[in-house]
Amino acid sequence: MTSADAGGDDRGEQAGGVLRRMLRSRSQAEPLRAPILPPAPPQTPAKAAATAIGRTAERLYGLAIPSVKVEQGVMTLAELPEMLPELPLVVMLQGPGENLGAITLCPQTVASLIEVQALGRVTARILERRRPTRSDATLCADFINMLLTELAAETQGMDGFQGIAGYRFLTALDDPRPLSLMLEDKPLRSLTFDLRMGGSDTREGQVLLVLPQAKKETAPKPQPIAPPAPAAAPVPAVARPSLGAPMQQASVEVVGVLCRRQVSLAELRALAPGRVLQLPRACLTDARLETADGQVLAAGKFGEAEGCHAIRLRARDASPTAEMPPATPSVTMPEPPADLARPDPFRPGTALAAARDTVENATIHRQAR
Q1: How far apart are CA 202 and CA 65, in angstroms?
Q2: What share of the chain has pLDDT > 90, as a percent?
Q3: Cβ–Cβ under 8 Å, residues 112 and 205
Q4: Residue (of 110, 122, 111, 97) closest to 172 by Cα position
Q5: How far is CA 79 from CA 74, 98, 189, in A?
Q6: Fewest CB atoms within 10 Å of the CB: 110, 229, 296, 299?
Q7: SS3 content of the chain, % helix, strand, coil (to 5)
Q8: pLDDT per residue over 187-216, tens digit each?
C-alpha cells in the first residue's frame, strides 16, 4: 500500500466519524417523531352497509362483490310496494320486542346465493321467470342473518340506526301484498343495495332492507324527590281466600268484527248465495275484537298469519297514522264504551233484532196466506 492510499483511508475514516457525531448530536437534540398522517374519512351509513354486505358474502361463501352501491332513505308503508323489485323473495324479520321488518332479494341475488352454495361460483346463465319458494328462503337465511349482524356492528353509534340490532329471519311470504298488513303503519328506514356479484362472470342484483325508524332517545326529566311518608303502624295480615287463580282459567268468548252495515228490508230479502256485499274500503284497518255482548276490547288490522285469518292488535290509544306526516289524514279509533253491559243492536235479544223478527214473521205469514 502506498502512502497516498493510506492518507486517503485516514481522511475517509475521519469524514465518517464526523458524520456519525453530527447525526448522534442531532438525534439527541431532536427526538424522532412519528410522521403525521392525514385524518381518516368519517364513516357513513352507506360505507358501513357496503362493508357489512361485502364481509358477509366473503365470510360465508367466499363470494366476491366487486361493486356495491348503497342508498339510504325513509319511506312510508304506502310507498313500499313501489320500491320492490319484480318477483322478489320477501322475508319478514323479527326485531326486539314486537318490532317487525322486511328484507327483499331480487331473483338475480337469490340465484347467485344458491349457485355459490351448489357450484362454488356465480354463472351467467339466463334465469327462468318464476316466483321464489320457501326452499329459496331457507338457502338464503344464513346470508340474511349474518348481514343483519354485520350491519348492526358497523352502524353502531350512528344516528338513526340505534334499533337495528337484534333483527333475525322470521318467515318468508309467498306474496308481497300482505306486507302492508303485517308491518306497522309508521315511518320506515330503508337501505337499498345495488350489487355486482361473482368473479369472471358477474350478475347484478338488488337487496332492499326495511326496518321501523328508531326514535331518538331523550334524557328523562328529573323528578322531584318527595319527602318520605311517615311509617304506618303494621296491620296484621288476614288470610283471605282468593278467586284470582280460578278466574284466570275461565273461558271468554270473543268475536272478531270486520265491519257493520245496515241494509234495507228489500236488500235483506234479496240476499242469496253468491250475492256480493259492498264493504267500506277502510274496514281492513278497522277490525275490532269484541265480547259476545258487543263490548269493544281492542282494534287492529285484519290480515292473514300461517294460513289463518288474523287480527293484528294495536294499542288502544294509538291510531294507524299516529307517526305519519301531517298531510296524511289520520284515522282515530273510537274509545270503547264505559258500560260493559252495552248490548249489540245486531245481536239477538235487542230491540232492533226483535223488530227485524217481527217484520220477517209478518212477511212469512203473508206469503203463507
Answers
A1: 9
A2: 22
A3: yes
A4: 110
A5: 10, 22, 12
A6: 229
A7: 35, 20, 45
A8: 888 999 999 988 777 889 999 999 988 765
Separation CA 50–CA 40 (nearest Å): 17
Q: Is pLDDT at 333 greater than 50 in this prediction?
A: no
Looking at the DSSP assignment, which residues form a beta bridge with residue 169? 93
Residue 5 near residue 11 (C-beta atoms within 8 A): no
Q: How many CB atoms lie within 10 A of CB 147?
A: 22
Residue 303: Cβ within 10 Å count: 16
Pair 116, 61: CB distance under 8 Å: yes
User: Residue 271: CB partners within 8 Å, gap ≥ 6?
Assistant: none
pLDDT of residue 327: 36
Angle between helices 134-154 and 45-61 (to 10 degrees): 130
* Terminal Cα distance for the chain, rounded: 153
C-alpha 105/C-alpha 84 separation (Å) is 9
Distance separating alpha carbons of residues 196 and 206, to the nearest angstrom = 9
Angle at 278 between CA 274 and CA 280, to 5 degrees: 150
Distance CA 43, CA 46 (A): 8
The pLDDT mean for the chain works out to 76
Global pTM exceeds 0.90: no
Residue 157: HSE in the Cβ half-sphere, 13 Å Cα cutoff: 4
Q: What are phi and psi of 297, to 5 degrees?
A: -95, -45
Cα torsion at 326, 329, 332, 333 (round to 10°)? -140
pLDDT at residue 326 greater than cutoff 60: no
